[in-house]
Write a sequence for this structure.
């Protein structure tokens, strides 16, 4: 059995680990276009912040590939999948046979058209380790950095480089920061924090044109800068599957076994659209835990088990300058709001179930108890919801359920 | 508050250097002695509430606590001692009977400590219990002294019902009510594991404990609480309680506050009604009346269970025992004046009754003299504190012994003697759920099993030393005992020679 | 694998498990030195309300959501035991988001810490179990 994994990030590791739990002898090959062993992309901002090092960023220990008997083909790109012959064409001209294939190609930065963008010399995206290293090279204490995009990537970048540069300005078309994961009050809290940390946020605005070292904004404002970071968004890398005839929407379509519409071809991670377990809608849920669990599920199926991943949902844990934010699920239905000294909590209830939450600041402790209510679609009538709304406690569950959680559950 | 005549008996000493302010003392004290002062980030204590039960001391992880008897006192007076004066203050204050619990703390002679055990030297060999069999199994019940044959001349082998004990030690009567559910369960589990018996006391048998029936003695007392046919048949034996060593001659009183749903059901009385045990059984005024009850119970259980009659050790105990031995009872249990209680008037506890050592010796002697010793087995209790006490009791003539205070100590009791408050911090003498749960029967029963197992080892060791390899051969073997520091009368009653003789 | 299990029936809410945990993981020889005048940050926490109490620590799940959610690869499963490499943790709190028991909590510096069954300190055996006065916490195979 030859398992081939295209892409060498989190989904890939999940896949390797689950295959090896079942099949210790089959060959596993990993083809990745980056030259690094698997590292965690969300850590690149922490690298620039000196909160981690390149060595510590590796997602698994150094011996991981050897211990799992994985053949690594790094710095290579797959150009096409031939599902007839079950072969991959590699950019070095070679062909690789596969029995089971995982596409875990992730996503790439999306860059909207901006006038004179190509004239900007110090322009970077912020997704990969190499992006971070390239950016690092040009940063000086005098740098004025302009970040386009006030989403997770742009703001983490801002946090990561804050102490290395003179000024940071974040520009986003949206009227508030982190619009994809926060409500207005949440955005406002985070924005206040960013401002207090010396970051300039220009919202509801966009770059019309770059002129020399200035960005001219639609509003007429002019932002001078030395370094430009583009963090507007990402696009799933779908071309391999699309060109092989697989079904693709915004991203690669997979079922609950993580298989694509192509036989023996699976996909996992940021390149996929999975079914949101709360809404039952297809969505790109490009977050790390989903990537791992999809890769893991794909691996188990590739190795012959029947595995399902039907718990995909949006969730994010992120922090900016010590202000922590944890969110999950969807923000629909009726809500319960609790404001505290340094943050707030908002719980969303629909059809007697918790479907989402936003926790900021001192409300984040034990958030996973809320996540489990969302994930398990717990009927709120079976627990003490008033109590658990105040504070996530196992006490809120019925005695039998508590006994299960503390005694039998593993 | 007026004048406070009573200075606190105990002082809580906290080593500030060691206290880590974990507040376990505060959380574990039902008397609310300890509290946390947030302003100073320090624990503080109110000595007036302390009963010296050591719960806080035992749980303090850094040994920062100790409880010390106050050295504050009255002017020295051999007659008017401090506690005597304080009792007068208390009664002048309350106008009531002084209540107390557990056995008397008074300094009466302890005869166990005035008897020494023999050992073999040269002329008769001692026995190593690790190499040779050593029998501690005992049967309690009437022993027929005659060989009987049926009309065909065949031997009748059927004996009267017997209690078989692997070790000659039983847990004596403590009612569900006076002690907690978990204390009862601990005793039941341990009795089952050890192959011995525990005793329900007069509070009936909780439905959960019928499963331990084979190791249970069910009691019938003057209040007849919880007595019904299934109850009588549930146990291995039935004990008629005529008296109790801690309070001979008086009845009992479990306050209504302790009669919750469970206890009410078990005792078959209304919730929150006081449970009064009358001083006498109102249907027993003579040995003949007692005989009626003995046979009533035998009839109710189809003569399958031995009947125990329990009496307190009082002045005429040998004559009383003689009567009981003729009443049809199978076993006589005698409770000495040092026996414990959940609550008793202090004056009764401290002044009524006689020591079990003397009562046992005189009863055994009397029954032998009258040729009726085999009619009954003798079980004695009332402060048996060690395996040495067990050996001495058996050598004086007991078939087995009852322990209760020792068992409670194994469960964590620290003899603070405030059972009557119902706030036992060790989860034993309380019905408050948050306190009851402090005694996990798994832990409690293990400690009881450990205690009895340890005693059994020691009993075998000392029996071997005497060259005796079975309990049967030790029973009534007073030659194995010598008195020390006893006068002629005491020696004569105990039926033993003085050391050196 | 032997795990720590909790039975609320016997939990007294004495919180000693928390203190024994903090001590065991302090690296100090003396409990007094380790804990005196400090706010403790144990890896086991007692929940209590209306007379009910119980301790919560890591269940060492067979399918650990925390490990699968860790963005830094700092959490891993070693022979069934879930351990954290504090030097890799960046404090993103994804594990807090993921753990259905609320069993992970950050230390004073915001770095994640968790119950590792006292295998990674000098104590050797779970200190909470040894310190529990009523066998409400046990360490056994189930």
């Amino acid at each position: 059995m030859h398992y081939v994994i295209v892409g060498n990030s989190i989904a890939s590791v999940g896949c390797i680990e689950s295959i090896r739990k079942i099949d210790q002898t089959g060959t596993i090959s990993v083809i990745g276009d980056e030259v690094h062993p698997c590292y965690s992309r969300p850590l690149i901002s922490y690298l620039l912040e000196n909160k981690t090092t390149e060595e510590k960023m590796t997602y698994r220990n150094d011996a991981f590939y050897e211990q799992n008997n994985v053949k690594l083909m790094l710095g290579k790109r797959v150009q096409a999948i031939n599902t007839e012959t079950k072969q991959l064409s590699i950019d070095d001209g070679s062909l690789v046979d596969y029995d089971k294939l995982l596409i875990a190609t992730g996503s790439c930065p999306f860059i909207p058209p901006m006038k004179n963008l190509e004239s900007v010399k110090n322009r970077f995206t912020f997704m990969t380790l190499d992006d971070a290293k390239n950016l690092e090279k040009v940063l000086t204490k005098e740098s004025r950095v302009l970040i386009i995009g006030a989403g997770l990537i742009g703001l983490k970048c801002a946090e990561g480089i804050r102490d290395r540069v003179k000024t940071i300005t974040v520009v986003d078309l949206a009227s508030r920061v982190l619009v994809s994961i926060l409500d207005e009050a949440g955005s406002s809290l985070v924005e206040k924090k960013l401002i207090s940390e010396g970051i300039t946020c220009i919202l509801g605005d966009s770059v019309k044109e770059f002129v020399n070292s200035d960005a001219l904004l639609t509003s007429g404002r002019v932002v001078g800068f030395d370094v430009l970071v583009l963090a507007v968004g990402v696009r799933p890398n779908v071309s391999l599957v699309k060109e092989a005839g697989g079904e693709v929407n915004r991203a690669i379509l997979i079922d609950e076994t993580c298989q694509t519409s192509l036989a023996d071809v699976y996909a996992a991670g940021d390149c996929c659209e999975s079914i949101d377990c709360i809404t039952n809608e297809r969505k790109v849920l490009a977050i790390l835990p989903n990537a791992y669990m999809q890769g893991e599920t794909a691996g188990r199926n590739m190795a012959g088990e029947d595995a399902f991943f039907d718990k995909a949902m949006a969730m994010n844990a992120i922090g900016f300058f010590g202000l922590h934010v944890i969110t999950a699920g969807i923000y629909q239905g009726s809500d319960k709001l609790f404001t505290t000294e340094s943050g707030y909590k908002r719980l969303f209830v629909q059809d007697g179930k918790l479907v989402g939450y936003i926790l900021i600041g001192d409300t984040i402790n034990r958030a996973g108890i809320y996540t489990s209510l969302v994930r398990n679609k717990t009927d709120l009538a079976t627990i003490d919801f008033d109590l658990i709304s105040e504070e996530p406690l196992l006490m809120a569950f019925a005695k039998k359920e508590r006994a299960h959680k503390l005694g039998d559950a593993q | 508050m007026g004048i406070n005549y009573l200075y606190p008996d105990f002082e809580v000493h906290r080593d500030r250097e060691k206290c880590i302010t974990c507040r376990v003392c505060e959380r574990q004290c039902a008397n609310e002695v300890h509290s946390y002062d947030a302003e100073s980030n320090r624990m503080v204590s109110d000595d007036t509430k302390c009963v010296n039960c050591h719960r806080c001391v035992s749980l303090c992880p850094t040994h920062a606590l100790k409880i010390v008897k106050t050295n504050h006192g009255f002017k020295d007076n051999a007659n008017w001692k401090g506690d005597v004066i304080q009792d007068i203050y208390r009664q002048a204050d309350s106008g009531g009977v002084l209540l107390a619990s557990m056995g008397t703390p008074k300094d009466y002679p302890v005869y166990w400590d005035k008897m020494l055990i023999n050992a073999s030297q040269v002329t008769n060999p001692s026995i190593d219990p690790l190499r040779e069999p050593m029998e501690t199994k005992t049967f309690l019940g009437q022993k027929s002294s005659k060989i009987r044959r049926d009309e065909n001349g065949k031997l009748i082998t059927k004996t009267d019902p017997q209690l078989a004990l692997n070790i000659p030690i039983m847990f004596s009567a403590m009612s569900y009510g006076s002690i907690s559910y978990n204390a009862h369960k601990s005793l039941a589990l341990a009795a089952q594991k050890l192959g011995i018996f525990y005793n329900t006391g007069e509070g009936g048998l909780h439905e959960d404990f019928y499963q331990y029936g084979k190791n249970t003695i069910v009691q019938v007392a003057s209040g007849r609480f919880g007595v019904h046919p299934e109850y009588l048949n549930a146990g291995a034996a039935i004990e008629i309680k005529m008296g109790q060593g801690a309070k001979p001659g008086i009845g009992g009183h479990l306050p209504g506050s302790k009669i919750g749903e469970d206890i009410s059901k078990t005792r078959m009385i209304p919730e929150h009604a006081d449970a009064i045990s009358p001083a006498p059984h109102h249907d027993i005024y003579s040995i003949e009346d007692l005989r009626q009850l003995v046979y009533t119970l035998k009839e109710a259980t189809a003569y399958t269970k031995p009947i125990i009659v329990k009496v307190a050790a009082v002045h005429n105990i040998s004559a009383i025992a003689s009567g009981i031995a003729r009443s049809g009872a199978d076993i006589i249990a005698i409770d000495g004046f040092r026996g414990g209680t959940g609550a008793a008037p202090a004056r009764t506890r401290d002044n009524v009754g006689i020591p079990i050592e003397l009562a046992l010796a005189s009863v055994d002697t009397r029954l032998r003299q009258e040729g009726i010793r085999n009619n009954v087995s003798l079980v004695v209790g009332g402060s048996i504190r060690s395996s040495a006490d067990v050996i001495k009791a058996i050598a004086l003539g007991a078939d087995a012994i009852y322990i209760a205070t020792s068992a409670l100590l194994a469960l964590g009791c620290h003899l603070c003697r405030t059972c009557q408050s119902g706030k036992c911090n060790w989860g034993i003498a309380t019905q408050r759920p948050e306190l009851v749960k402090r005694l996990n029967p798994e832990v409690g029963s293990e400690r009881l099993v450990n205690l009895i197992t340890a005693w059994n080892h020691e009993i075998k060791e000392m029996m071997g030393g005497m060259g005796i390899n079975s309990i049967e051969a030790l029973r009534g073997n007073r030659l194995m005992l010598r008195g020390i520091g006893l006068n002629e009368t005491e020696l004569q009653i105990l039926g033993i020679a003085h050391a050196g003789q | 694998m032997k795990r720590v299990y909790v039975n609320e029936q016997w939990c007294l809410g004495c919180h000693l498990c928390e203190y024994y945990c903090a001590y065991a993981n302090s690296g100090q020889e003396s409990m007094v030195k380790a804990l005196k005048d400090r706010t403790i940050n144990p890896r086991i926490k007692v929940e209590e309300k209306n007379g009910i109490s119980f301790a919560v620590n890591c269940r060492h799940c067979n399918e650990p959501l925390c490990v699968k959610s860790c963005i830094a690869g700092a959490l891993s499963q070693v022979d069934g035991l879930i351990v954290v490499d504090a030097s890799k943790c960046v404090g993103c709190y994804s594990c807090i988001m993921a753990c259905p028991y609320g069993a992970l909590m950050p230390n004073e510096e915001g770095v994640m810490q968790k119950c590792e069954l006292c295998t990674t300190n000098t104590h050797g055996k779970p200190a909470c179990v040894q310190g529990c006065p009523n066998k409400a916490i046990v360490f056994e195979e189930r």
Notes: Chain A has a mean pLDDT of 95.
